[in-house]
Design a protein that fits this description.
The protein is α+β, with helices and mostly antiparallel strands. It has helices at 7-28, 35-52, 105-119, 134-142; strands at 2-4, 56-62, 65-76, 88-96, 125-127. β4 (88-96), α3 and β5 (125-127) form a beta-alpha-beta unit.
Length: 168
Amino acid sequence: MIREYEPARDWVALRACTVALQEAERKLEPGLPEGERMADDYLAHLLARCSRDSGRIFVAEEEGEVVGFVGVLASVLPEELDEDPAPHAYVSDLVVLPPQRRRGLGRALLVRAEDFARRSGATRLRVGVLAGNRPAARLYRSAAFRDYRLELTKDLRQWPVAQGAMAR
């Protein structure tokens, strides 16, 4: 069952899902902060963004237990001057706990987020995913998302000077 997040009922489970998501992402990007250390501040930030950007959190529940969630912001203003100036919707987070994965819950959460975005008047829905998170990227592409922007990163501690570049 997918339903709207209820703070008094779901906070502990939402936090556990956030920690699980962060720890999964840390396996792909070890420099990210530990889930336990960032979860409370991150969830406060997510809830503030939901308030500011007309967002909602939906949870996946099985046998009375929350096993995943999606955060969707319905009206996000572009931050860059060279972007389409129209607001867009944004999937900020999507996680299903490992024991419940590969059973359609991620897709069901994504469908609920998309439905909410459409009903809120959004004409475009975006999502970000770590490049190494191939299962998530497959899910999004199978739901008709397409690559939009590729962001690359370089660890300057490992590569102090660009090849071919000389200090002048």
